[in-house]
Amino acid sequence: xxxxxxxxxxxxxxxxxxxxxxxxxxxxxxxxxxxxxxxxxxxxxxxxxxxxxxxxxxxxxxxxxxxxxxxxxxxxxxxxxxxxxxxxxxxxxxxxxxxxxxxxxxxxxxxxxxxxxxxxxxxxxxxxxxxxxxxxxxxxxxxxxxxxxxxxxxxxxxxxxxxxxxxxxxxxxxxxxxxxxxxxxxxxxxxxxxxxxxxxxxxxxxxxxxxxxxxxxxxxxxxxxxxxxxxxxxxxxxxxxxxxxxxxxxxxxxxxxxxxxxxxxx
Length: 266
Known about the structure:
Layout: E1 4-9, H1 13-25, E2 30-36, H2 41-50, E3 54-56, E4 68-71, H3 78-86, E5 93-96, H4 103-109, E6 116-120, E7 130-136, H5 142-153, E8 156-160, H6 163-192, H7 198-217, H8 222-229, H9 235-245, H10 248-263
Parallel strand pairs: 1-2, 1-4, 2-3, 4-5, 5-6, 7-8
Antiparallel strand pairs: 6-7
Helix pairs in contact: 1-5, 6-7, 6-10
């Protein structure tokens, strides 16, 4: 794989997670990284002083030099930007990290034969522990996929999907961490009701979650782990009964469906 010249249009937390991972894991494959932001020069100054990269407030001037362009911006910002970008691209790989913006959308708004891809990381990318999904357009070559895999490696684990699968699974890998954090918040609040101070309550809940996830990652089925904790007729079984009576599984199903619907713009 040739060394890459990568332009990030957008300088937020996800962009930072991606290029910091690249500079940590794949620096030998990077010729240059340029990060652009039109309005927040203080942010650009911080990034330039922290990482080995270039910054600019004028992304258009950097397009010709790049062979990979990463669109790290909200979904609603894509349409106007792609109109500007379409007049400047010359076969570069264009990658978006925005919810709901698949490679077919990029292809429809960029010149014919533009290689396009969609990466959906989650916020754990900032610590190199994301479960990222990605899909590629019809003009992506094996060499392009090597570049995508390099980008993904710096963020954690990844799974190649069809575009439709990414649409459906983004709620599971991208949004569901928020559901888990809400669960953690609720447990911490309950713990504090027993006259436990904030810091101790947080420590108890966070370590419980960490240990539980570590056991899940060991490969044991969730149902088997649940049964190991649950003595028939015991205290845990009584708590699970409350969740079942409130149809916990259906609540999760509905939360995923609502997330997917919103991500598709419905």
